[in-house]
Amino acid sequence: MYMDLLILIQIEKAPKHGYEIKKEIQKDLGYLMDVNHNLLYPALRRFTEEGAVSRKRIEQEGRPNQYVYEITAAGKEKIVELVNAFTEKEAKHYIEFMIRVSLFDRISRENRLRILNMRKRHLEAQLADIEKRKDDHAGMFRSEVLQYSLSRVRGEMLWIDELIRKTDNTDMESN
């Protein structure tokens, strides 16, 4: 689901052709991810059919035609819909969560808190599971991995608590 969001966000910034969309997503994610053509172009075709984007053909002499995609009003609505459509399953995935957080300015306070609390519940379950496994005496390096995992999960939980506090304070300031 996050790939749909990333594609639409790039098109919303400015009309782009497929290769530009791919490169901008990779730039935004620090090349942590390769945008596969088998994901990108079917999504663009689906968005065009749904009316979320419009497509304009640019003819190029001696080269294949190029298509430039532009966001529509329905596409802007779809972005908000996708940001809000955060499920328990997606709460388990770091990148799904991080992309939603980066788009929090587009959604309501209630949905921000719902997403943050959903991710926090997942992390609490993960923390309990790691705590159970760390006493298995399975070797030094496994123990190191589990200790690192504990610190990473605890750190993210502290960050989420801070985001919850900021969300609550922002709401108070606007009243």
TrEMBL record:
Q: Which InterPro entries match?
A: Tscrpt_reg_PadR_C (IPR018309), Tscrpt_reg_PadR_N (IPR005149), WH-like_DNA-bd_sf (IPR036388), WH_DNA-bd_sf (IPR036390)
All residue ranges annotated as the Transcription regulator PadR C-terminal domain in the record: 96-165
Domain (Transcription regulator PadR N-terminal): give its ranges: 7-79
A Pfam family that this protein carries is: Vir_act_alpha_C
Q: What is this protein called?
A: PadR family transcriptional regulator
* Provenance organism: Paenibacillus cisolokensis
